[in-house]
Amino acid sequence: MITPIFASIFYIAIFLFLGLLAGKFMKLLHFPNVTGYVLFGILFGPFCLGAIVDACTGISDTLGLSTFFLGTASNPGSIISTMDISFLSNLALGFIAFSIGGSFKRSALQKTGKRIIITTALEAFGASLFVLVALIIAHFIAPDRFPLPIVLTLGAIAAATAPAGTLLIVKQYKARGAIVDTLLPVVALDDVAALVSFSILFSIAKAMTGGNINVYTIFVVPLLEIVLSLTLGAVVGFVGSSLTRLFHSSNNRLIVLIASILFAASFSEFSFFPKGHVLESFAFSPLLTCMMAGAIYINLGKDPEKGNESLEKYTPPLFMLFFIISGATLDLSIFYKDVNMLLIFLPIAIIYLLMRAGGKYAGAYLGSAMDKEADPRIKKYLGLMLLPQAGVAIGLATSAGQSLGGNILGYTYGEIIVAVVLTTTLIYSFAGSYLAKWALFASGEAIRQPKTPNP
Fold it and tell me: Taking a C-beta distance cutoff of 8 angstroms, is the pair 355, 157 a contact?
């Protein structure tokens, strides 16, 4: 007899092995591991391999695959109901946000200077602005096909960048120069813009789907979420960093870090106001809370770099599970089940894909052009290296998928957002890595490695 606990543990083991295979496969193709995790999650999920099993009903019934496999299109609950996806999502997002906060070391920020901040603000804002304007125009043309909650949420997510593939290419070809030096701090900063804009716009989107539009839901709730989440994160970070000075063992300090992240992330699941209260939609943001905790820790903690290095040794399995399950929950039937749904989904995805790319490039170009002393190659090539999206974008989309209502032809707004982000993530991963490689060689910052002669 297959119990839910057995199924959960068994699936976790399967997912980890799939993740290892995905990472190996992506390494052969010179693409980031996260692309493989999402891709393998899709392939082995209920809506791809599961759908094939579903079509072979006689075989699956005989072998028990319909309940023992990774779910089927008709019964996706065997993967979703036996594992608390919401809990795993918030936990993974907490660790991701904490690592982002860890990049805000005071000394490093002082070195980056005003130019980096301006470039980051413009490329992140440009991506969001381009997506928002294009989708809002589409909304006024066809409001039923481009609902405002989807428009607002995708506009916020567009700011996020995760150029893991770009950084791999930088290391592979030993790239050095002004572009690379600008790229690294920009990447660390622009996810913050995505987290803050998501907190504001997603609160409005949720209020719109719940039919509860008022001053509190549009202005008070987002402001409270940002201010109180950052305040809680600062408190958690201060207490955690103080405790790291109390304990001398690296293992104990690691426990303090993990406990601090868990504490900060747990508040996102706590309901502070009863139903019917004007502030019932308020909740702490695990992203902002953990990001602030990470920023405080990196500046006040005892040997924070060593602590982060220890933490990074234990997070890969969690991130791997998160991205694989995110891919597995992508309902591929959105592509083939209903032609009308496809006609709604594709325009949204295409507009998001093109406008985000255009906004990133235009913002990076303008931000670099404002600094007359900047290397002219930066404004020409930097934008091409900011296209990939992965960790934070998928995490924000997952949050939207869990809590955003609304409905179009049987699909919630959240499900459509997840489908758009995951689909474009795969496209950006492959196309973005190619463009980044081309930009590095075109700019002259990459060193072409000689081919090793065959023995």
Answer: no
The DSSP bridge partners found for residue 408 are 411
Q: How far is CA 154 from CA 16, 355, 419, 426, 441, in A?
A: 30, 11, 11, 16, 32
CA-wise closest residue to 98 among 401, 314, 250: 314
Residue 347 has a pLDDT of 92
Distance CA 296, CA 67 (A): 46
Return the structure tokens found at 25.
């496969």
pLDDT digits (tens, 9 = 90+) for 370-388: 877 777 888 888 888 888 8
Beta pairing partners, 411: 408
What would the pLDDT profile of 322-376 be if each residue is shown by its tens digit?
778 777 777 777 777 778 888 888 999 999 999 999 999 999 888 888 877 777 8
- Alpha-carbon separation of residue 399 from 9, 69, 72, 185 (angstroms): 23, 26, 23, 26
Q: What is the dihedral of CA 296, 302, 303, 309, to 10 degrees?
A: -60
Q: How many angstroms separate the first and last alpha carbons of the chain?
A: 55
C-alpha 214/C-alpha 220 separation (Å) is 9
Residue 236's identity, in one-letter code, is V
Q: In this structure, are residues 47 and 69 in contact, taking their beta carbons and an 8 Å threshold?
A: no
Q: Max Cα separation, the chain?
A: 74
Residue 448: partners with Cβ closer than 8 Å, 6 or more residues away: 173, 441
Q: At what angle do helices 304-312 and 250-266 cross, to 10 degrees?
A: 70
Could you say which of 2.40.37, 1.20.1530, 3.40.190, 3.80.10 is the CATH number of the domain covering 88-443? 1.20.1530
Alpha helices (H) in 314-384, listed in sequence order: 316-328, 333-336, 339-369, 376-381
pTM (2 decimals)? Answer: 0.75
* CA dist., res. 389 & res. 302, Å (int): 32
Are 201 and 261 contacting, i.e. CB atoms less than 8 angstroms apart? no
Q: Among candidates 348, 386, 349, 354, which has minimal Cα distance to 367?
A: 386
- Report the distance separating Cα 446 and Cα 170, nearest Å: 7
Cα gap 77→313, rounded to integer Å:
32
pLDDT value, residue 284: 78
Give ranges for CATH 1.20.1530 in the chain. Answer: 88-443
